[in-house]
Amino acid sequence: MALDPFYPIFDHVNWLERLVPLGIRLVQLRIKDEPQTTLRAQIRAAREICSTHHCQLIVNDYWKLALDEGCDFIHLGQEDLDEADLDAIHAGGLKLGVSSHDEAELDRALRVDPAYIALGPVYPTILKKMKWHQQGLPRVGEWKSKIGAIPLVGIGGMSVERAPGVFAAGADIVSVVTDITLNRDPAERVREWLSVTREFAR
């Protein structure tokens, strides 16, 4: 399955409702610290939005709810892998994206049959505090040489202006958060992202 090279991440379904119709084909819903009822409602709404607009939805972390709501793709961080039932995930037909930040995490990610592997932060990020410093573009190329045909997602400090260099370094997909959500005109910024990433679509 070919994944779109433009991969935004949003923390509320309202973002998907607003921006997916602009032409987004790959999106992650990443919600933290909400009640199960809220999580379920947002995942269900996100699935409907993405189905309507032919967009691949990836649910962060909540694999049980993703299965319950008929989703087919999840993303797990390394800590999430500690608690996830990988047998149940694969038996349920869920495709799995995995985060990685160092060699040990990459080795672990490769063992779980990932649909993609994410590397970050490529650049400094304001999204969350991390113990890892920026990986840099050479690391992107190194990771791609190690994972071969598995799609590589570059994440962390991404912008429209930086994206071409990340693709040139070896990433297949660029994931972005605050460059859109903190922009004065998120819709226009999405259009700029769509324009710059089209040429990298497989």
Descriptive keywords:
8 strands; 202 residues; alpha/beta; globular; TIM Barrel; 10 helices; single chain; eight-stranded parallel β-barrel
Q: What name does the CATH topology carry? A: TIM Barrel
Q: How many strands in all?
A: 8
**N-end to C-end Cα span:** 10 Å
Going by CATH, the architecture would be: Alpha-Beta Barrel
Output the CATH homologous superfamily.
Aldolase class I
Proportion of residues in extended strands? 15-25%
Mean residue pLDDT:
95
**Could you list the spans in which at least 5 consecutive residues all have pLDDT below 50?**
none
From the helix content, strand content and strand pairing, which structural class follows?
A: alpha/beta
What's the SSE pattern?
EHEHEHEHHEHEHEHEHH
CATH class: Alpha Beta
Strands side by side in the biggest sheet: 1-2-3-4-5-6-7-8
Overview of the structural elements:
- By secondary structure, the chain is an alpha/beta fold.
- It has a single domain (6-200), classed as Alpha-Beta Barrel (TIM Barrel).
- The chain is 42% helix and 18% strand.
- An eight-stranded parallel barrel has the order 1-2-3-4-5-6-7-8, surrounded by six helices.
- Helix 7 links the parallel strand 6 (116-119) and strand 7 (152-155).
- The protein is globular and about 40 Å long.
- The model has no long low-confidence stretch (mean pLDDT 95).
What's the layout of helices and strands?
Blueprint: E1 6-10, H1 13-19, E2 26-29, H2 36-52, E3 56-60, H3 63-68, E4 73-76, H4 78-83, H5 86-91, E5 95-100, H6 103-110, E6 116-119, H7 137-147, E7 152-155, H8 163-169, E8 173-176, H9 178-181, H10 186-197
Parallel strand pairs: 1-2, 1-8, 2-3, 3-4, 4-5, 5-6, 6-7, 7-8
